[in-house]
Amino acid sequence: MRKEKPIQRYNALERMNHWVVAFCFILAAISGLGFFFPSFNWLMNIFGTPQLARILHPFAGVIMFAAFMIMFLRYWKYNLFNRNDLVWAKNIHRITLNEEVEGDDTGRYNFGQKCVFWVAIISLVLLLASGIVIWRPYFAHAFPIPLIRLALLVHSLAAVGLIITIMVHIYAALWIKGTITAMVEGTVPAAWAKKHHPRWYREVREKQQEDKP
C-alpha cells in the first residue's frame, strides 16, 4: 500500500508567528520572575541589566500580545468547544496511556489544546490591561494608587496562570511525538493526523479532493 504524503499543519508565516510569541514569552516571563522574587533578581539580566529589563519587559509583553492576537484571529474557530470534547475529557486517562478511544472524533485541536488556547488569551488580556495601569512612566501616573495596587495583583496572578499554562503546553508537545515537528517543519505524517485528529484529517483530505482539477 502506498504511503500517504505528509499533511501541512502550519505554513511558514504561522510557524514564524508562533515562535515570535514563544520568544517574547520567554523574555517577559523570565524578567517578570526577576521583578516578583527578590532572590531571582539576577534573571532581569536577560535584557542586559535590571534597568533595561524594567524598560523592555512591557514592550516584550505588548509584542507577545499582538502576535498572539494574530493567532487568535486565525485559530479561534477551531478552538470552539463541542460535544466530542466531552468524550476526550472523559477518556483523558486512556488518552494519556496512548490507548484508542471509541467515539473520539477530534478536529484540528483537542479539548486540552482548546483549554490552553482560551486560558492563554484570557491571561494575556488581563496582563495587557493591568500592565498598562502599572506601566511607568507612560500610563501609571493617570491612575489612582488603589487601582495600581489591584493591577499589580491581577498582573502577577495572570502571569503565574500563563506560565503554568505554557508549561503544560510544552509538556504536552514533548509528550505527543510529532507535535514539535509540526511547528518546526510545518507538516505531520498522515498516520499522526489520523490518530490524534481524525476529523481534521478527513476535512483536509476532502478539501484536497475538491481542489483537484
From TrEMBL:
Keywords assigned: Cell membrane, Electron transport, Heme, Iron, Membrane, Metal-binding, Transmembrane, Transmembrane helix, Transport
Localization, UniProt: Cell membrane
Residue ranges of the TM segments: 20-43, 55-76, 115-135, 147-174
Membrane topology note: Multi-pass membrane protein
Gene Ontology molecular-function annotations: electron transfer activity; formate dehydrogenase (NAD+) activity; formate dehydrogenase (quinone) activity; metal ion binding
Cofactor: heme
Annotated Cytochrome b561 bacterial/Ni-hydrogenase domain residues: 9-186
Entry's Gene Ontology BP terms: anaerobic respiration; formate oxidation; respiratory electron transport chain
SUPFAM superfamilies assigned to the protein according to its UniProt record, in alphabetical order: Transmembrane di-heme cytochromes
Signal peptide, first to last residue: none
Entry GO terms, CC: formate dehydrogenase complex; plasma membrane
Family: Belongs to the formate dehydrogenase gamma subunit family.
Name used for this protein in its record: Formate dehydrogenase cytochrome b556 subunit
Organism: Serratia oryzae
Lineage start: Bacteria, Pseudomonadati, Pseudomonadota, Gammaproteobacteria, Enterobacterales
